[in-house]
User: What shape does this take?
Amino acid sequence: MRSDATRNREAILRAVEELLAAGESVSLDRVAEAAGVGKGTVFRRFGSRTGLFQELLAERAERLAARIAAEDPALPARERLFGFLDELADLAGRNIALFAAHERACAEDKYADPTYLRWHTHVTALIAEARPDRDAGFLAHTVLASFDGELVRHLGVDRLKRSVRELAAALTA
Amino acid sequence: MRSDATRNREAILRAVEELLAAGESVSLDRVAEAAGVGKGTVFRRFGSRTGLFQELLAERAERLAARIAAEDPALPARERLFGFLDELADLAGRNIALFAAHERACAEDKYADPTYLRWHTHVTALIAEARPDRDAGFLAHTVLASFDGELVRHLGVDRLKRSVRELAAALTA
DNA sequence: CTTCAAACGGACTGTCGGTCCGCTTGATAG
DNA sequence: CTATCAAGCGGACCGACAGTCCGTTTGAAG
Assistant: This one.
């Protein structure tokens, strides 16, 4: 990738963050303007609105990916699940607007988003390990649905954390 | 309401159903055209795209509302919950496209939709009755999230029913 | 310095939700 | 049956937005 391309990529992602943080509408025209690039550049780099939000989410979720990789496999699956969901709740709490925008942008076929897929695979594995008799794939979707942007906004992070833990406990009891 | 208004209201709702069933894009221009009315009429009657889908969902959910009203309060809350969710799964299965479109249209503040609200209130009450120690309001959102249009499409009604019952059982055990 | 693929930018397009306003019509009163 | 007029109608119009196109610029390799 050429150096100007790298620089612009970064500028665009930062511009989206700014607009999200400011609570303003995040149209791609505005993103391009705020980033000081042309609209074509946004599309060249990210392909579509969906791609843009997917990449931004992926970037913000790196810590979480690292955590998955670093998990101690000796720990019981339940504990690992609790830890993962706790960290995910933190991420959601810190990025409510991004979560909401991402959900909106990926509504069409949201189960194809790489980040969501990674989370789902992980949670499915943990539930399956704790309770092989249950439909782990389905329950993982259910658990992850708790992190819907609007819902997080409604509940607040504290209640979310408490309730998600309760949910996870019930599902792996 | 004037007789022509009633007739048009019906024509519009039926037109939406047709388009949904045909899997075509449901823009309000197309709805108006298919219904044989002007676009202004659609907005006069339903206020917005969101209102249109809310009303259509409300209409389709009437059976379910009747069921809630007719529930035998002597039955244990768990049983009533299972029964309600089973019927909701049927409704979702029969109206996948509508569920998806409704979610899309109501994404902004979906917790304000009257039909969703009614379901949520009901499920919350049932869970609270079965397990007063749990966060019933949160868990109700979780349970209802299982009926996301895309998810229903992915899983199919049979697996959905089975898994939702498993979920409800775990939450009220 | 030359070369050129990669990258750029912003005008342009098509679509869509929503508004506006002059025209039409169902219902009611006389 | 006719007059009246608010309720209703329709479709041209608007602004916003995602996505495309293409002539121009530029980083970097040789």
